[in-house]
Amino acid sequence: ATTRYEAEGSSATCDGTIDSNHSGFSGSGFCNTDNASGASAQFTVDAPAAGEATVGVRFANGGSDARPSNLVVNGATVQAPSFESTGAWNGWVTKTLTVRLNAGSNTVRLSATGSGGLANIDYVEVTTDGGSTEPPT
Ligand code: GCU
Ligand code: CA
């Protein structure tokens, strides 16, 4: 199953502002973090069972430099994805990451490691099949 978690959703946090000035986002806005190292967007995501999940991060980076980050799952840094320039702030792209989740509630945090902060973050989509009793389609 795939579930979308909007950056402006009630279970997400954004170290910055929820903006809507660059078109093409899903829902009512996107997270524009402060342009500072450590600025984060955090999502609380559910998994039906422990196991691997894919996390699709929809982002836009209209700057010319990539925006590096740490991916922190349940408090542990598991990857260091970098969000490349997408050419324009309304140029939304999805980057797919693979993580292990616990059964139940998990925190998935992107935390900037560069002074530019994160790219603008629209949502994450989490795909888990661990709870399925049917073969994948
Ligand atoms: C611009 C843009 C913001 C973006 C920011 C940045 O101000 O409008 O949406 O977050 O640049 O460089 O991070
Ligand atoms: Ca920003």
The amount of beta strand, in percent, is over 45%
Q: What is the count of distinct domains?
A: 1
Enter the CATH topology name.
Answer: Jelly Rolls
Bound molecules: alpha-D-glucopyranuronic acid, calcium ion
Number of strands: 12
Distance from N terminus to C terminus (CA atoms, Å) equals 11 Å
What CATH architecture label applies?
Sandwich
Account of the protein in words:
By secondary structure, the chain is mainly beta. It has one domain: Galactose-binding domain-like (Jelly Rolls). The protein is 0% helix and 53% strand. It contains no helices and 12 strands. It has strands at residues 2-6, 13-14, 16-19, 30-33, 40-47, 51-60, 67-73, 76-79, 82-83, 93-101, 104-112, 120-127. The strands form 3 sheets. Strands 2, 5, 7, 8, 9 and 11 form a 6-stranded antiparallel β-sheet that branches. Strands 1-12-6-10 form a 4-stranded antiparallel β-sheet, with no helix packed on it. A hairpin with a 2-residue loop joins strand 7 (67-73) and strand 8. The protein is globular and about 40 Å long. The mean pLDDT is 95. Bound molecules: alpha-D-glucopyranuronic acid (GCU) and calcium ion. Calcium ion (CA) binds next to strand 4.
